[in-house]
Amino acid sequence: MTLKLSKHPTFVRRPGPLYLIVMDGIGIGRQDEGDAVFRANTPTFTRLDAEALKCSLFAHGTHVGMPSDDDMGNSEVGHNALGAGRIFSQGASLVEHAVQSGAIFESKVWREMVGRCLERKSSLHFIGLLSDGNVHSHIEHLFAMLRQAAGAGVERVRVHPLLDGRDVGSTSALDYVGPTEALLAELSHDGRDYRIGSGGGRMHVTMDRYEADWRIVERGWQAHVLGQARQFASTTEAIETFRRETPGISDQVLPPFVIAENGAPIGTIEDGDCVVFFNFRGDRAIEISKCFEYDDMPHFERQRRPEVLYAGMMQYDGDTHLPSHFLVPPPAITETMGEYMVAAGMKTLAAAETQKYGHMTYFWNGNRSGYFDEGLECYLEVPSDKLDFSLRPWMKAAELTDLVIEETSKQHFDLVRINYANGDMVGHTGNLDATLIAVETVDLCLGRLLRHVAAQDGMAIITADHGNADQMYQLNKKKGGFALDAEGKPVSMTAHTLNPVPFWVWDPRGKSSLQLDPSIELRRLSNVAATALMLLGFERPESYDPSLLRFG
Questions:
Q1: pLDDT tens string 460-501
Q2: Residue 75 designated active-site
Q3: Catalytic, out of 68, 75, 107, 409
Q4: C-alpha–C-alpha distance, residues 347 and 344, integer Å
Q5: Which residue of 148, 160, 359, 489 pairs with 127 in a disulfide if CB–CB is 3.0 to 4.6 A?
């Protein structure tokens, strides 16, 4: 692999840095009542529409390596595409193919787990996000493994569902729990005992990321492993009880629960058991994987750590080889933009608050942890708030802007990449009023940052990794308009959208010889890397998707 960039034959870069700004979750919506991006007061966006080169980019489906164009994009695949400059088949596609072809069941790890359960008469546990959102997991992958386990003779299975309410409808948990309980009951014959053991809402139990709040993981460990949580006779009873006690609660923040009989939990994880974490996406799977695999756990007291064979659906961190066992190999993403920058001796600053820090580093760099070259790269993280983002919709955008301006005023960087997380994280709450504030916060901070870009005689690319805040109400696909609840009010939408995202190239000097290349018929996130390299004075690598720009 040769990581050599050729100088662009004619374009001379600006003296100042190129800023690559990702407005997470800011898409181009229908411009209706439920479109927080359209409804917000955004003078900076309006200015960019008037002054910058602009187009829209696809950020979902096959355009970012997902199985079909009905699949929403997400921050992981979006930042992979932005950083890699071309499209790689992503976790959802790889796992779907492995399940459909049966390759997953021929893997050494699956066969070892089944053999261990048969030999020791031990339990096979499945932990993961229970929905068909296809962002972190897919319920059909779980169902395929359950059927395969039953066919192989595994006698005892426990499922530990993490309820979604984020990539799917905010109160849709029973739509997934019902079929799961039905399948488990169907498979529980001929001596088999297949049941749900524990669970909880994904944002409150188990699925923390970037070590933002280890208490979330601790709740999951206590419920799944130790059986320590509020007890119920069934998952349906747990969900209905929580909803009755807290009207309007979203599935994603439901408390932990365990299923019990005669006061004893039925699904604790014991020595000799096997555990599959069936999420294919890595960011919210890494911490619970550390709990099963690492000897030292300074973040909370595990009380006991059972001797189990633990496997991820995929390997979630290739650098640390976590987990050590996995069912489907992850995509091999090479020759990322970060690698090319280091090879060319260019200095890069990457900055985000905790919720998106890993996206601007790990995912941007092709699912690699750490630096390529610490002498040429600087990664800055602003700790995120540890509470519902609808209560702090401004999040840490101002502090992040302060930090970037301060750091780039002290030393020179060639490329500065920054992520504003507000549109996505607040959009996921389903709170329209809070999301309006979130979008306006991004617009305000972006305006301040662009003034700094102008003062440095730099340029800026502004885009997004996927949509979210651009559609805050669910649509009625049959009748048109919004889906309405029993009271006739629009139903909140907490998932990402299928909408395109904005792409602006802003030159503070005003009009330049650059223009959008009309020959590129399909514009998508993976075009951005080549565009950025061109603005840094280089020709694109041959393997990269073309630059969106050309000379007039």
A1: 999 999 999 999 999 987 788 898 888 899 989 988 999 999
A2: yes
A3: 75
A4: 9
A5: 160
